[in-house]
Amino acid sequence: MGNDEMTEYYIRLGYALGAGNIRAKRALEYFGNAENIFKASDKERAESGIFTKNELLRIKNSQNAAALETLEECKENGIDIICYGDKNYPYCLSVIDDAPALLYVKGTMPDFDNIPAVCIVGPRKVTEKGKMASYSIARRLALSGMTVVSGGALGCDSAAHSGALKADGITALVMGCGILSDYLQENAGLRESVSRSGCLISEYPPHYGASRYTFPVRNRIMSALSVCTVVIEAGVKSGALITARHAAEQGKDVFVIPGDVEKAEFKGSNALLRDGAKPLIDMSDIFNEYIPRFPDKIDVKRAYSAQTGAADKKEKEPVHKNLSNETLSKNAKIVYNHLDKHKFYPEEIKDTGLGAGEILSALTELEVELLIRSLPGGCYEML
């Protein structure tokens, strides 16, 4: 049987069982692969004791046409499909009980089983200090050679991806919707940049829409792909707590930046510390934990270098406007030099030679460096 034909069966299984279904892995291990599930008789599937009545009905009525259409659409858009049991399927993800039946991947999947990855989570409405922390931690992790995993949302997630991109590092963005979904168009450029330096990952079909239910389901993948999860900030109802819970259940470390006990935005994260999470006071807390396990994969000396990947390449871009910050990346300097209004929108930045994702990452960097700040409605102003 050709790989495409086998993949179609996995796509059909994904449609029949849905994302986050703990019975997907059980069924694949019981029957051997997705093809065998669909070729089994109704009686054999029922007697396996794995599926609910509704799932048995959906499997029986499953049509190959939708799977074939999805497969062709993935080929047209450069999306790879990695099925449970494939050699490219991360082992660290395969061992969790609710491992996805398949992953949709755009870009190059990092070697999660041999290169340590760190998941960074926090709120969309992150504090300025939180945004700076997310950006800085991700940048140093990426400089050290570790992979940065996050969810691609505004706020903390975007800062983490941008920090990794600044370091010319590898970052993986695990989506709570399909890769071709029109969700959060303002971050479309960032997703494009991530797909070039790392990858986008989703267990949802390409055009599957986002909802309040899809993101919590997604979070278990982020923690499973990582050696630890770092919580930047979390209120009592923060989605970051869900990722932290998954990490703990998966036997992974959870690091938390301690926050003001009187402020609501830290009540959830401080509760994690009370319940046994590890305080993250300095980057050495992470490096010291994992260097013994990955001595040839983590370069601490480079992580603490003031220079970024762009500076390592000896690319120089003069900085005007009386600015002399040598830690800025080349792209951030280019964007800053093209700012000619006190208040501006990203789409107004012209003739930089940079893509939308590169401009967004540069703006995040400039914001972290306190050179600009974001305003409601997607506007920025210079400081």
Verbal overview:
This protein has 383 residues and is an alpha/beta fold. It has three domains: 3-76; 117-303, Rossmann fold, CATH 3.40.50.450; 309-382, Arc Repressor Mutant, subunit A, CATH 1.10.10. The chain contains 18 helices and twelve strands. The strands form two sheets. A nine-stranded mixed sheet has the order 1-2-6-5-4-3-7-8-9, with helices on both faces. Strand 5, helix 10 (188-197) and strand 6 (199-202) form a beta-alpha-beta unit. Helix 1 (3-17) packs across helix 6 (64-76). The longest helix has 17 residues, at 128-144. It starts with a helix and ends with a strand. 45% of the residues are buried. Residues 306-317 have low confidence and may be disordered.
Q: Can you tag this structure with a few keywords?
A:
single chain; 383 residues; alpha/beta; Rossmann fold; Arc Repressor Mutant, subunit A; 3 domains; three-stranded antiparallel sheet
Mean pLDDT across all residues, rounded? 91
Return the CATH topology of the largest domain.
Rossmann fold
Could you give a short account of the major beta sheet? 9 strands, mixed
CATH class of the largest domain: Alpha Beta
| Annotation field: number of helices | 18
Beta-strand residue percentage: 5-15%
Structural class label: alpha/beta
How many structurally independent domains?
3
Q: For the CA atoms, what is the radius of gyration?
A: 22 Å
Secondary structure tally: strands: 12
Uncertain segments are: 306-317
Q: What is the terminal separation in angstroms?
A: 62 Å
- Note the overall shape: globular
Please list the strands of the largest sheet in the order they lie side by side.
1-2-6-5-4-3-7-8-9
